[in-house]
Amino acid sequence: MKNFKVILFDMGRVLVNIDFDAFPNALGLVTKEQREPFTKPAMHLEYLYECGKISTDEFLEKLYHVFHSAYSTSQLLDAYNAIIVSENSTILPFIQEVQKKYRIAVLSNTSEAHWEKSLTIAPLLQLFPQKFTSFQIGAMKPAKIVYEKVIEALAVQPSEILFIDDVKENIEGALSCGMNGIVYTSVEQLSKEFNILSIL
Q1: For 52-67, what is the mean pLDDT?
Q2: pLDDT at residue 41 above 90?
Q3: Does 1 fall in a domain?
Q4: Among the listed residues 27, 133, 41, the one whose alpha carbon sits nearest the alpha carbon of residue 72
Q5: pTM of the entire structure?
Q6: How many CB atoms lie within 10 A of CB 1?
Q7: 142: in domain
């Protein structure tokens, strides 16, 4: 049995339900052809924003030009925030059980605007005493520096951390830094994995 001290959770599609299509849909861009001219430049800006390289105002101003001034910055912010849908209430009882035995923390690739909305719509995030976000760290998973900074802040050995993320590459990044990991698909699957590891 592994001697875990910290169970580290991703946020999007684990603790919080998200819908990437909600952003273009909210702008009336529902087909692939309508979205195509904007996809790459918008994704590049989101990457910079989630890495904390540009502010919310800069992100919205640059998006405004990407979309050729067709939408106001407030419309763009509302559409962008539509990606964050709701709290994953099905995982709450599991988190509460884990919290009885282990320290818990969050590590998320996210932006300032999405983080603020998530804190508003997902009360379960308040259960986590330590929260790490890409825009505050200045880099995104699976970059090695992200895991190194989190390990340092948690002040435990990498092998004492179990990371749960829905993206395989992010788990592989954690494993390469000496952490343990589980690729998340559902609460039921996660419960089974914990039972197999005899840690809950």
Answers
A1: 98
A2: yes
A3: no
A4: 27
A5: 0.96
A6: 6
A7: yes
